[in-house]
Write a structure and sequence with these properties.
Layout lengths: L2 E5 L14 E5 L13 E5 L7 E10 L2 E5 L9 H4 L2 E2 L3 E9 L2
Antiparallel strand pairs: 1-2, 2-7, 3-4, 3-7, 4-5, 5-6
Length: 99
Amino acid sequence: MILMRFRIEDRSMEPTLKSGDYIIVNKLAYVFGKPSKGDVIVFKDPKEKNKFLVKRVSKIISNKYFVVGDNKRYSQDSRHFGPINKNLIVGKLLMHIRQ
């Protein structure tokens, strides 16, 4: 499966993505390339393996990715769990469908 659909469940990416919105993620986006600063990505939560998070890449540090939510007040992100490895990344935001 090349594309995956996710439903936004929290406020961490407001105003870009709101709770109830859907996103389509391209799982092949980083097979041959790397995330860039500013990309919105979906990745496996480093603390809860069965949970997915949506964040924006804000820094790249030695092949690790520092990710933050656009709404920093409501976001659990790299400020809490540190940078993530590429192997946790599911894919890149391709399409956003507003609720």
